[in-house]
Amino acid sequence: MNTYFLEQLLASSDASPTNTNPVALAPCVLTIGNFDGVHLGHQAMLTQVRELAKARNLGSAVMIFEPQPREFFAPAAAPARLTNLAEKQALLAEYGVETLIVAGFDNEFRSLSAQAFADILAQRLNVQALVLGDDFKFGHDRTGDSQFLRDYGLHVTNLDTITDDNHKAARISSTRIRDLLLAGDINAANALLGRDYAITGTVVGGDKIGRTMDFPTANIDLKRIKPALHGIFAVDVVSLDNDGNVIPSDLVKRADEGHKGIAGLQAHSLFGTANIGTRPSVDKTHDWRLEVHFPQLQADLYGLTLQVRFLHYLHGERHYESLDALKEGIHHDVQELIEWRDKQTGG
Predict the structure, then answer these.
(1) Average pLDDT over residues 21-32
(2) 289, 275 Cβ separation under 8 angstroms
């Protein structure tokens, strides 16, 4: 999948003599949205884009916004991200998107009229047809919609609201998935995602508090304002290469002899226990962290890109009155999650 930033594409379409590296996008079918989570509703949209693109011998493309509009207008009140940009890119590529256009959502972009935005689509991005949700609006005056684009001369297909099999009247949405994750209902959230919920990030330096209590953790960079789920979880973890592919048994290969960790439930993974939240017991109430402890593992994981797959919710974050109480609480959680893992694998 090729990824372009809209600002670069608009600049490269300038026909001035100083522009020596123009980018010309192939004619395409485009869909537009946040695509946070790339859930089953989004996947239905992508399927329609691919089918229409194939029928018309066009490329398939998606436009997303960074930051997401609500993050731009009110960062502190914006909904938690299901997927950061890198995760979203990987998922869209997995679902067959050929071209990703990232539109920087700023004052200039939000000031575009519906006419100006339609001009960009048709004249600068080579869009021949669009697949849109039934409630899609655009332009600073919100006058742009599917009919506006049809009147402009573009072919527009509207996709009906996608509902799930168990609740026919319930729309599959990022908001609904966030609510399920926050409630710890991992299985229901996964059913709407069409896969297990996971977070991918680089292992970075932390404050090493866990190490002082004999529970060292890998501190994983979240790359988002705040995560969509909080609490204590059983997780599976794999190491990824620069292309996002799983490196077979990479964590085990890096481990010290005799301290190889506990096998996870998916191939090439290690089992871990994760705390994701603000760690109220260590006075870090505005510092969102994803910390993973790997029982029975000794290895240097700094700099690795890890994918953390959430398997089971144990409980929410708890405040402990002392570090000794925190240590005892962590010990109890780790043992309970290992027992849960053993039940899944038959021992």
Answers:
(1) 86
(2) yes
